[in-house]
Amino acid sequence: MTQTDLSIATAAEMLPITQIAERAGIPENALEPYGHYKAKINLEKLPPAVQQGKVVLVTAISPTPAGEGKSTVTVGIADALGLLDESVMVALREPSLGPVMGMKGGATGGGFAQVLPMEDINLHFTGDIHAITTANNALAALIDNHIHQGNILRLDPRRITWKRVLDMNDRALRHVTVGLGGPAHGMPREDGFDITVASEIMAVLCLAVSLEDLKERLAQMLVGYTYDREPVTVRDLGVEGALTLLLKEAFKPNLVQTIGRTPALVHGGPFANIAHGCNSLIATNTARRLADVVVTEAGFGADLGAEKFMHIKSRQGGFSPDAVVIVATVRALKMHGGVGKSQLTEPDPEAVRRGLPNLVKHMETIRQFGIEPVIALNRFVTDSAEELRVILDWAEKAGVAAAVADVWGKGGEGGLAVARLVKQELERPKNFRRLYDVTDPVEEKLEAIVRGVYGGDRIQLTDKAAKQLAEIRRLGWDALPLCMAKTQYSLSDQPKLLGRPEGFTVTIREIVPKLGAGFLVCLTGDIMTMPGLPKQPAALRMDVDERGRALGLF
Length: 554
Known about the structure:
Elements: H1 5-11, H2 17-24, E1 31-33, E2 39-41, E3 54-60, H3 70-83, E4 88-92, H4 97-101, E5 109-110, E6 113-116, H5 118-122, H6 128-148, E7 155-160, E8 164-166, E9 176-178, E10 189-191, E11 193-195, H7 200-207, H8 211-220, E12 222-226, E13 231-233, H9 234-237, H10 240-247, E14 254-258, E15 263-266, H11 281-290, E16 293-297, H12 302-317, E17 323-328, H13 330-336, H14 349-368, E18 374-378, H15 385-398, E19 401-405, H16 407-410, H17 416-426, H18 442-454, E20 458-461, H19 463-474, E21 482-485, E22 505-514, E23 519-524, E24 543-544, E25 550-551
Helix pairs in contact: 3-17, 6-10, 8-10, 13-14, 14-15
């Protein structure tokens, strides 16, 4: 019988979460169990910090629609470092039900490199994303109620920027009308839904460093403009306390374990193509307090999650990564080399060679930040030895550290070669630098990303984006980092432009201030903040047996 992620996870023997906490140095009174195998951590009851562990960031090349196993490699490297006697923890994002039920799958890794309990984490887990959904929609209800009850703030219903959210891919909710049915039901206006992981509240929760900081960031969030086009924030509505109350438990990091019994913090879940794509700062910093090495990941390729890790998360967290791993796969390189999705399992070393420029660009991007990357070749059963050799030979000639990671099939044992390279990189001195200062003009920040990270030629602002930028400058919001909303499949803003395109222009269609999160979202191309489901959603393969056990969950 062919093994699946679910069958491997189900057969794995988990330790009680109390034992995992003991391994991680978490005292019993700081642990708030959610059943036997997962728990929240009460940060106030942790002992004072005596260390700041080193951070290993795992990123990837531009992925195929199925993903390249970045979370799998992240878990495998952490388990491998544990086998090399390192004090190590994993810090990952929580999965969104949208992609779980849609196409990409969960975010718990795969094979023998998973975090457990896989079924719980991929579904409702400890309810964090539901809490964020509730807080977001409570704010939306409070905004509409304020207008209905007299509108003392003179909020212009045509200029409300706050949207409702749902943790599901539902294209039918992108544009809706609310308040129909007469005066008793509110004022009719156009509205819309984003997916929960694109909510600013998700970003705020993931970037706050304390409960007080969380409350202050919530207060700063922009909800709309008055009839005089002056900004209105949550602080003006006076509801930041209520929102914090809804989020106070969700703000606590979640402790689970890998199959290799490495302690793992799974907390926060912003997408990397429409948000900043990193797990919570509070979880990463908690892991740094508890372990010598923290292995974390940033969503999609180095052009998305890693760039935002460098410019947003690590900037706000006051640290920089000590090592970076770029995950590459034979199948993704073949797609970038011109092979169609239906032929990716057929051996084609020449296609791998043609696709290498995509990997080269991501490697160059990490080097621009002053870090020498390690290449992890995430092995699939369909990879031929000749195809893998093409990549390893290129790496040797280019002077790049690279090794095969067979962690899906072998867990930590299959990640030892990569882990040894990571250990070597952790010992080398760094000269970390960012590609822009927040005080640079927005156009210069955009060009630094488009030219330096994407390899593009120029930027072009639509009339709408230009007007929004002028308003942002008028209000003094321009000295913020940028959060690019861009397709994950291409270095450009055009999903079908694969490989390493050159000479392209990136069109900025909107610039949206997210004052609580502390960045400006720049929407490019046709990127949507509420995705849709594919023609054959993953939900069609899911079921439950007579004993309540999940079926078809990857």
